[in-house]
Design a protein that fits this description.
By secondary structure, the chain is an alpha+beta fold. The chain has two domains: 55-108 and 124-162, Uridine Diphospho-n-acetylenolpyruvylglucosamine Reductase, domain 3 (2-Layer Sandwich); 170-269, CO dehydrogenase flavoprotein, C-terminal domain (Enolase-like, domain 1, 2-Layer Sandwich). The chain is 31% helix and 23% strand. The strands form three sheets. Strands 4-5-8-6-7 form a five-stranded antiparallel β-sheet. A four-stranded antiparallel β-sheet has the order 9-10-11-12, with helices on both faces. Helix 9 packs antiparallel against helix 10 (230-238) and helix 10 packs antiparallel against helix 11. It binds flavin-adenine dinucleotide. Flavin-adenine dinucleotide binds at residues 25-33, 35, 69, 92-93, 97, 100-102, 104-106, 108-109, 113-116, 155-156, 183.
């Protein structure tokens, strides 16, 4: 059976189709799906495209931000209100990829991809999931990522999170061997409330330091109540490797990733990245 293409208007119709047929694949920006098609890994079933404009919307109301899962990295970069996310959006591929690559697709991208998902993890995003006809259910991003490989989330409608209170509360860096658009040796996102005096309830996340984006819980604990001075940064660096299981791939070995992570974490916290 050849591949079929089906186009639907509404998100709930798409969610219903995806729930009913495991051989249907959602086609979002298509940067990964179409590569699978072109390279012969995806040869039958149905590709499903959604035209609902709400799926691509970006809404900022007060401190709450909602990004439609179909919004692209280019759309994030075009939004002045989302300046704190520009480094994370710019980390995804080159301009042609960013014109197509979506927020939703990035949540499903395997390491060393998934740079934007690392930022969403540090921002404690809620992932709005449609598992069939009905209303979206809010799933905390950590729970969402843990269940991702089980195929529980058939359709992500949007992601929601709060805007960091102060400029500089949110930081992101990506380390790659090829500039400016190589794949991640690692990425780090940090939400550092109170960074100007004493940190409270930091959330720090890593990409490519495991099969999924992971929280750096040791670093978060080490930073609690500390100033971002030499002592605070040294404590964070000492805890940098707690709980990580870096991948070995064509970009870097797990050993190399472990060696360089504390150095880049220190630079990010010192605002020298
Ligand atoms: C040359 C190249 C360079 C790249 N560089 C980077 C990089 O530097 N950093 C990086 O993070 N990524 C990179 N990528 C990977 C990819 O482009 C991004 O991760 C992108 O965000 C994927 O989004 P997409 O919309 O294209 O996903 P698609 O290809 O459309 O979909 C990918 C998967 O996610 C599923 N999916 C997509 N959206 C949803 C949704 N809303 N709900 C449920 N399932 C969904 C699809 O069904 C499919 O299984 C690169 C890819 C290429 C080809």
């Amino acid at each position: 059976m050849p591949l079929a293409l089906r186009v639907v208007q509404s998100l709930s119709e798409a969610a219903g189709i995806l729930a009913a047929d495991s051989r249907t694949t959602l086609l979002s920006g298509g940067t990964l799906v179409m590569r699978d098609v072109n390279e012969g890994r995806l040869t039958d079933g149905t590709l499903l495209r959604v035209t609902d404009p709400a799926w691509r919307q970006i809404q900022v109301s007060g401190t709450r931000i909602e990004l439609g899962a179909g919004a692209t990295m280019a759309a994030i970069l075009a939004s002045r209100e989302l300046g704190f996310l520009h480094a994370a959006a710019r980390a995804v591929g080159g301009p042609a990829i960013r014109n197509m690559a979506t927020i939703g697709g990035n949540l499903f991208a395997a390491a060393p991809y998934g740079d934007f998902a690392v930022a969403l993890l540090a921002l404690d995003a809620q992932v709005m999931v449609l598992a069939g006809y009905g209303s979206p259910r809010a799933v905390p991003i950590e729970e969402f990522l843990a269940g991702r490989s089980r195929g529980e989330a058939r359709l992500v409608a949007s992601v929601q999170f709060n805007r960091p209170v102060a400029p500089g509360d949110f930081r992101f860096l990506k380390v790659s061997r090829v500039k400016p658009k190589g794949l991640s040796v690692l990425s780090i996102a940090a939400h550092l409330p109170g960074h100007a005096s004493r940190i409270g309830q930091a959330r720090v996340a890593y990409g490519a330091m495991g099969p999924l984006p992971v929280r750096a819980r040791g670093v978060e604990r080490a930073l609690e109540g500390k100033a971002l001075d030499a002592n605070g940064i040294a404590a964070a660096r000492a805890a940098a490797l707690e709980g990580v299981q870096p991948v070995t791939d064509a970009i870097a070995s797990d050993w190399y990733r472990r060696e360089v992570l504390p150095v880049h974490l220190g630079r990010l916290l010192a605002n020298q990245s």
